[in-house]
Amino acid sequence: MLEIKNLHVKLEEEDKQILKGVDLTVEAGKVHAIMGPNGSGKSTLSYVLSGKDGYEVTEGTATLDGEDILEMEPEERAAAGLFLAFQYPVEIPGVGNMTFLRTAVNAQRKARGEDEISASDFLKLVRERAASLEIDADMLKRPVNVGFSGGEKKRNEILQMAMLEPKMCILDETDSGLDVDAMKLVAHGVNALRDQGRGFLVITHYQRLLDHIKPDVVHIMSNGRIIKTGGPELALEVEKNGYADMKAEVA
Ligand code: ADP
Ligand code: MG
Ligand code: MG
């Protein structure tokens, strides 16, 4: 479903190559994890896939169900079914969380050629999904992420994901800074969305999230490349031995 081939990316401002040939395929129904030391290019990969400014693709391709996503505007990527939960969710003062969610859901339905969701169906759906993430009614009424704690912001990202029902979900360090309970809620939200038709790319610095979101495949990224791919045992190996051995092995 998501197919990344030989992706090379540099910063637009500086002449600095960050991704140096990333190859990665995430099949429908699978959860792939990317781990790797700080500065290896994990967030850059998620930013480039989301269409954030400031990055230049110098070589390679990225497609979703065969469609070139790198050519799309960020909103077209979302309409195509790509969702990204960021390491640092943005605050949107003046826009109510509920209004934001409904607008996003309807924009996506429109892009798919579907009718708008009715107010009552939307309300029912958002309340049900918010409850499962322990997001209370008050948080739904407040401006998007404004004054939310770290854990609330991340849970809110997962709520957005649950409402949009994307084909391909990318989570960049959605666990960082979370206490165990908040992390479990995030994991629960992701697990509830696991589905044969949906793929996940879970980027995480630590193994502990992967105790709760059991990945099918684990990739290790270092210095702008995937240096190793394996099963869940690879995450345990990292936890035990760090990245140094893997880097040395590859070198
Ligand atoms: P990770 O998410 O794996 O920690 P990043 O993708 O955030 O790694 O960063 C990869 C490398 O690119 C790092 O060396 C980082 O300093 C550099 N980098 C990323 N974005 C920028 C930027 N906007 N300006 C300067 N350097 C950047
Ligand atoms: Mg980092
Ligand atoms: Mg990062």
Automatic annotation (TrEMBL):
* InterPro entries with a match to the protein in the record: AAA+_ATPase, ABC_transporter-like_ATP-bd, ABC_transporter-like_CS, FeS-cluster_ATPase_SufC, P-loop_NTPase
Q: Where is the ABC transporter domain?
A: 2-248
Q: What is this protein called?
A: Fe-S cluster assembly ATP-binding protein
For this UniProt record, the keywords arranged alphabetically read as follows:
ATP-binding, Nucleotide-binding
MF (Gene Ontology): ATP binding; ATP hydrolysis activity
Q: Which residues cross the membrane?
A: none
**Does the UniProt entry include the keyword rRNA-binding?**
no
Name the domain of life: Bacteria
Q: Kindly give the Pfam families that the UniProt entry links to this protein.
A: ABC_tran (PF00005)
Q: What CDD domains does the record point to?
A: ABC_FeS_Assembly
